[in-house]
Design brief:
Blueprint (H helix, E strand, L loop, with lengths): L5 E4 L2 H5 L13 H5 L4 H9 L2 H6 L2 E5 L5 H14 L3 E4 L4 H14 L5 E4 L18 H5 L4 H18 L3 E2 L24 H17 L6 E4 L20 H8 L1 H8 L4 E4 L19 H11 L5 E4 L5 H4 L6 H9 L4 E2 L4 H13 L5 H17 L13 H5 L2 H14 L1 E5 L10 E6 L6 H6 L6 E6 L5 H11 L4 E7 L13 H11 L4 E6 L16 E4 L5 H11 L24
Parallel strand pairs: 1-12, 2-3, 2-9, 3-4, 4-5, 6-7, 7-8, 11-12, 11-13, 13-14, 14-15
Antiparallel strand pairs: 10-15
Helix pairs in contact: 3-16, 5-6, 8-9, 8-18, 9-11, 14-15, 18-22, 20-21
GO molecular function, one term: beta-N-acetylhexosaminidase activity
Family: Belongs to the glycosyl hydrolase 3 family.
Keywords: Glycosidase, Hydrolase
Length: 570
């Protein structure tokens, strides 16, 4: 390739502006183990006081990016209260593994260590691998790849000293404007959600990791974020049974070890005013445990969220969550107060002695199944290398290649020798997509269009592009989380519509699939790839498709508009 043929061209007005093997085959699943006598569990249970037993219900928040004083304060709580577990949030992997070792030393009964890892360690930790978002995975047709991902995620978690992943998300995202689930879901088809969720959690559980399907009975058709208020699910029992609950029912039948409860008001299931599903005994015990026959761990969503604390403050939510049937009460605002109030409820017979014992033993059986009866500290040697292996990185690329979805291809045949414009929209510097595409199109120039480019800049660019025989366009969302609508200026959106009307233009969308609905005219594009997110791997995947080195096999996991519906893919 000659340097003179490949110049990065900035319009002046914009310039300024596998799998590492360490998995083991479980002889018995956690669910199978629950029905059997267990000497370790019985011994630990009988040695505990009632206060210590109640404390097993509580899991507290931990970070490794908030300094030593914060870390020490969490350690003090663990030491004094002897809690059941810890939920880690942001930080770094080596710091976290080291802190886990310290916290485990403070616990008389080993802690269950867990974290939200829907797309692996990278959901919370720096310097770790992020697997594709679940919407991206929803496009993949080879479920074996997702099973392998589950195994690798389990290895990564266990390598850091964790025993449970608070995932997968098994919500059916049938509301494009959902502010909290959205790209975290496998899509809007309940069968696909169930199928993908099951292979993912089976990969994790077969490799020795506890899992948790969330957010029961289904958080996909809401337009309120339960972190800030209580969402309302206003649908009938029959609708919820047949749609929202379907993936959870299938997961239960397939042996999921845990289910997390959503904070939602659901009048058709419990008409108590302002009562979140997390605090509802008819929903948790009546439906999940009795009707659906779920025997595993029932986990509350975070009890510090406004969706629950707004209407049940001062520890009332913790007690109601316990009485409702939650086995793990996650992130109480005040765990010491929660233990005190729950002990009082037990004394008063709010939950029978038989049920109380069974629920505490469920937690202890989980600890036994995860190997905590023979706890060993995490080895820090080579930790970073182990969780960032070449095999794991290769798997991310395989998943990305399998997700790319061709929505349109009206005989757009890109010629590597024609004069080509390679345009990235929504960015302020050249993209990896452009750097990869240019390797296959030697007679090309790169153009950068900022998401806020003014009308005059857009006009100038469109005029410049008229001299090119073919145009390759990347639409990029640079935000950390890909939302349903792009934050582009109206002028930039009009530019996309203009380019889509030209016969010689091929588009690749590195953004949430739902964003296509907010780009009128894109349905006229001759060639359209949807790549779901702006990861380096998906940018490489798209470049391979455009160069003819990869056949796109993905299928659209959500309906975007009347032109592009669930299941589409050439």
């Amino acid at each position: 390739m000659q340097a003179s043929k490949n110049r990065i061209f900035y319009p002046l007005i914009i310039i300024f502006t596998f799998f590492t093997a360490d998995v083991f085959a479980q002889k018995e699943s956690y669910i199978q183990l629950l029905g059997k006598q267990n000497r370790w569990v019985d011994s630990v249970y009988h040695k505990m006081s009632r206060k210590q037993r109640v404390a097993q219900l509580l899991f507290v928040r931990a970070h490794t990016n908030k300094g030593k004083a914060y870390e020490d304060s969490v350690g003090q709580v663990i030491k004094e209260q002897q809690l059941g577990g810890v939920v880690f949030f942001q930080g770094g992997p080596v710091r976290q593994a080291n802190l886990i070792n310290k916290y485990q030393k403070l616990a008389k009964v080993p802690l269950i260590i867990t974290m939200d890892g829907e797309w692996g360690l990278g959901m919370r930790l720096d310097s770790t691998i992020s697997y594709p978002y679940q919407m991206t995975l929803g496009a993949i047709q080879d479920d074996n790849l997702i099973y392998k991902m589950g195994q690798q995620v389990a290895y990564d978690f266990k390598r850091l000293g964790m025993q449970m992943n608070l995932g997968p998300d098994m919500d059916v995202n049938n509301n494009p404007n959902n502010p909290v689930i959205n790209y975290r879901s496998f899509g809007d088809n309940m069968y696909n959600v169930a199928k993908k969720g099951i292979v993912y959690f089976k990969g994790m559980q077969d490799a020795g990791l506890l899992t948790s399907a969330k957010h029961f009975p289904g958080h996909g058709d809401t337009n309120v974020d339960s972190h800030f208020d209580l969402p309302l699910l206003p649908y009938s029992r029959s609708r919820l049974d047949s749609l929202e609950m379907y993936p959870f029912r299938e997961a239960i039948n397939a042996g999921i070890s845990g289910v997390m409860i959503a904070h939602m008001g659901i009048p058709s299931l419990d008409n108590t005013p302002k009562l979140p599903s997390t605090l509802s005994r008819p929903i948790i015990t009546g439906i999940l445990k009795d009707s659906l026959n779920f025997k595993g761990l029932v986990i509350s969503d975070a009890m510090e969220m406004k969706g629950v604390t707004k209407y049940f403050p001062n520890g009332e939510a913790d007690v109601k969550a316990f009485i409702a049937g939650n086995d793990i009460i996650e992130l109480s605002e005040n765990s010491d107060r929660a233990i005190l109030l729950i002990r009082k409820a037990v004394r008063h017979g709010s939950v029978s002695a038989v049920e109380f014992e069974a629920r505490i033993k469920k937690i202890l059986v989980a600890k036994y199944w995860a190997g905590l009866n023979q706890y060993k500290p995490t080895t820090l040697t080579n930790l970073s290398q182990d969780i960032n292996s070449d095999a794991a990185k290769a798997l991310v690329q395989q998943l990305s290649d399998a997700a790319v979805t061709q929505l349109k291809n009206n005989n757009v045949k890109l010629n590597p020798f024609l004069k080509t414009a390679i345009v990235s929209i929504g960015v302020s510097s050249p993209t990896l997509f452009q750097m990869e595409v240019v390797k296959s199109f030697p007679n090309s120039r790169i153009f950068i269009i900022n998401k806020d480019a003014p009308a005059i800049a857009v006009t100038n660019i469109l005029n410049w592009l008229k001299q090119y025989q073919q145009i390759i366009v990347g639409i990029h969302d640079t935000r950390l989380r890909p939302q349903s609508k792009l934050d582009y200026s109206s002028d930039v959106k009009l530019m996309i519509a203009d380019l889509a009307s030209r016969k010689n233009t091929a588009f690749s969308v590195f953004a949430n699939a739902y964003t296509i609905a907010g780009l009128p005219g894109l349905e006229n594009a001759g060639s359209l790839l949807v790549c779901y997110q702006m990861s380096p791997e998906l940018q490489q995947s798209a470049a391979k498709v455009l160069a003819g080195r990869l056949k796109p096999t993905g299928k659209l996991p959500v309906s975007v508009n009347a032109f592009f519906i669930t299941g589409m893919g050439l």
